C-alpha cells in the first residue's frame, strides 16, 4: 500500500519506518526541514533501539521517503496518518492545533478516496472534529470527495517501540465505515497473523481506549507508590508485598514497581488530559486527580529522604546521581523524576555529579545552563566517575549496568557509603551487611 505519515516524532517515525519494513511505500512528512534533511542522511532524532537500521535500509530501498511537502506525498497515497504532537495546554487539556492544521491541509489537497487516520493521542471527539475540518476545506474548494476518518491509537513504549509495533498486544481500529475498516485490516494483517489482534470499535471508543490504558497504568504505579510509603512506616518490605499481590492473575506483576514516580511524555500528559475532559463535563475525577498528585509527591520523595538524613541545607555536600532519563532504554528526560531531584539538591546548595548511559546530551540541552557553567552539575563519562568523593549516591533510573555494580569500588570512591535507591534495585540486608547506609522506596527507610 502507499501511505503518508504526517509528523516524524516518536510515533510517526516508528509507524512510517515499520510499515516500510513490511514492504509498504511510505512518505514521512514533517514541517521541520532540517529534521527531514537529517533523516534523508539516515540520522534519526531519537534514541530508539533498532529504528536507525530500519530507517536507513528502507530509505536506501526507496520504500521510505522523507519530505516537507504533504501535497506531493498525498498524491501518491491511499492512507494518511496524522501523528503530530498534542502537547498539554496550560490548563492540562491537549492542544490540538497541529492535528487540526494537518486535517486542513489534507482537506485542501484531497483528490480521491482516502482514509485519514488519527494516530496521535487525542481527546474523545477529535475524530469528528477532523472530519468537519476536512469537509469545510472540501466545501471551500467546491469539491466532494468521499473520505473516512479512523482512530488508530498507538501503544508503543519508548525503548521498545519497534518491537511493540511489530508484535502488538492489540490493534485498535476506531472506524464507522466498512470501507475504511477493510483498508485498515489489510494494512495490519501482517501484524495479526498468529491470532486476530485487530479490534474494531467506534472512533470515540478507540480514542477513549488509548487514554484509559495509560491512565490505568499510571494508576497502578501511583497506587503502589502510596502503598510503599505506608509499608515504610509499618516496617513492611513493599517488595514482598509486590510479589505477593502480583501472583494474583487479576492483578499481575507488571506496572506495580514502586519507585520515585512516573515520567515521560505520555502518562503525565494523558492523565491530565482525562482530568480536563472530566472537569469540562462537570465531573469530579477524584481517582485521576489523586494519581496525578501522588506522582508529583512521589517525585519529591528522594529529596525528602535526603533532607531527613543530611538536613535542609545541603551546601558543601556532593551527590552522585545515577540515571537521568525518565526510564531505561531512552534518552528522553521529559517529566523525568531526575529533574525534580536535581532542583531539590542544587536548590538546597548541593553539587551533583551525574551519569546516564545515553541521556547526557539531552541533559545538556534541557537543564538550566547555569548549573553547568557554575559546575553545580557535572556530567561524567562513566558511572564510577560520578562517585568520586561524594557524600551519597542516588539511583534514579534503573539502567541495567547499575544493577550489579562493584560495591567495593563504590565504597572506595565515595566519601561515605550512603545510597538512596529510587528504584529498589538492591537488597537492603545485603547493603547493610556490606556497610552501606541504604535507603530505598518502601523498604524500612
Ligand atoms: C507509555 C505506555 O506504556 C505505552 O503503552 C504508550 O503507548 C505510551 O506511554 C504512549 O502513550 O505513547 P512510555 O511512556 O514509553 O509508554 O513508558 P513506560 O514504559 O510505560 O513507563 C512510564 C513511566 O512509568 C516511567 O517513568 C517508568 O519508570 C514508570 N514506571 C513503570 C514505574 O514507576 N513503575 C512501574 O512499575 C512501571
Automatic annotation (TrEMBL):
GO biological process, any:
UDP-glucuronate biosynthetic process
All copies of the UDP-glucose/GDP-mannose dehydrogenase C-terminal domain together span 320-428
The pathway to which it is assigned is: Nucleotide-sugar biosynthesis; UDP-alpha-D-glucuronate biosynthesis; UDP-alpha-D-glucuronate from UDP-alpha-D-glucose: step 1/1
Residues annotated as binding substrate: 155-158, 210, 255-259, 263, 327
Q: What is its EC number?
A: 1.1.1.22
- Superkingdom, according to UniProt? Bacteria
Q: Which reaction does it catalyse?
A: UDP-alpha-D-glucose + 2 NAD(+) + H2O = UDP-alpha-D-glucuronate + 2 NADH + 3 H(+)
Can you name this protein? UDP-glucose 6-dehydrogenase
Amino acid at each position: 500500500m502507499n501511505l503518508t505519515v504526517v509528523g516524524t516524532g516518536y510515533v510517526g517515525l516508528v509507524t512510517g519506518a515499520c510499515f516500510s519494513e513490511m514492504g509498504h511505500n511510505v512518505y514521512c512528512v514533517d514541517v521541520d526541514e532540517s529534521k527531514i534533511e537529517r533523516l534523508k542522511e539516515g540520522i534519526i532524532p531519537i534514541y530508539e533501539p533498532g529504528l536507525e537500521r530500519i530507517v536507513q535500509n528502507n530509505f536506501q530501498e526507496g520504500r521510505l521517503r522523507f519530505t516537507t511537502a504533504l501535497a506531493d506525498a498525498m498524491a501518491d497515497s491511499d492512507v494518511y496518518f496524522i501523528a503530530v504532537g498534542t502537547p498539554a495546554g496550560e490548563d492540562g487539556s491537549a492542544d490540538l492545533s497541529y492535528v487540526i492544521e494537518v486535517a486542513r491541509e489534507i482537506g485542501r489537497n484531497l483528490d480521491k478516496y482516502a482514509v485519514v487516520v488519527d494516530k496521535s493521542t487525542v481527546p474523545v471527539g477529535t475524530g469528528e472534529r477532523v472530519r468537519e475540518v476536512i469537509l469545510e476545506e472540501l466545501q471551500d474548494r467546491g469539491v466532494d470527495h468521499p473520505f473516512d476518518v479512523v482512530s488508530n491509537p498507538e501503544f508503543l513504549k519508548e525503548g521498545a517501540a519497534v518491537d511493540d509495533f511489530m508484535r502488538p498486544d492489540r490493534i485498535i481500529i476506531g472506524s464507522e465505515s466498512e470501507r475504511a475498516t477493510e483498508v485498515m485490516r489489510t494494512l495490519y494483517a501482517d501484524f495479526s497473523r498468529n491470532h486476530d489482534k485487530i479490534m474494531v470499535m467506534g472512533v470515540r471508543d478507540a480514542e477513549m481506549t488509548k487514554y484509559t490504558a495509560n491512565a490505568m497504568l499510571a494508576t497502578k504505579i501511583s497506587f503502589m507508590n502510596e502503598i510503599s510509603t505506608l509499608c515504610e512506616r509499618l516496617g513492611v518490605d513493599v517488595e514482598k508485598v509486590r510479589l505477593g499481590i502480583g501472583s494474583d492473575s487479576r492483578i499481575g506483576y507488571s506496572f506495580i514497581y514502586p519507585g520515585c514516580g512516573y515520567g515521560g511524555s505520555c502518562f503525565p500528559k494523558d492523565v491530565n488530559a482525562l482530568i480536563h475532559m472530566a472537569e469540562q463535563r462537570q465531573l469530579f475525577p477524584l481517582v485521576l486527580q489523586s494519581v496525578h498528585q501522588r506522582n508529583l509527591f512521589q517525585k519529591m520523595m528522594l529529596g525528602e529522604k535526603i533532607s531527613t538524613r543530611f538536613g535542609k541545607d545541603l551546601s558543601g555536600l556532593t551527590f552522585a546521581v545515577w540515571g537521568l532519563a525518565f526510564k531505561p532504554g531512552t534518552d528522553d528526560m521529559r517529566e523525568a523524576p531526575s529533574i525534580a531531584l536535581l532542583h531539590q539538591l542544587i536548590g538546597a546548595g548541593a553539587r551533583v555529579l551525574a551519569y546516564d548511559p545515553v541521556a547526557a546530551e539531552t541533559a545538556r540541552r534541557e537543564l538550566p545552563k547555569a548549573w553547568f557553567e557554575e559546575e553545580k552539575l557535572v556530567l561524567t563519562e562513566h558511572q564510577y566517575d560520578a562517585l568520586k568523593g561524594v557524600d551519597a549516591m542516588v539511583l534514579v533510573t534503573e539502567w541495567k549496568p547499575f544493577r550489579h555494580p562493584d560495591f567495593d569500588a563504590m565504597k572506595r570512591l565515595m566519601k561515605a557509603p550512603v545510597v538512596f535507591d529510587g528504584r529498589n534495585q538492591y537488597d537492603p540486608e545485603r547493603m547493610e551487611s556490606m556497610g552501606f547506609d541504604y535507603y530505598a522506596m518502601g523498604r524500612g527507610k
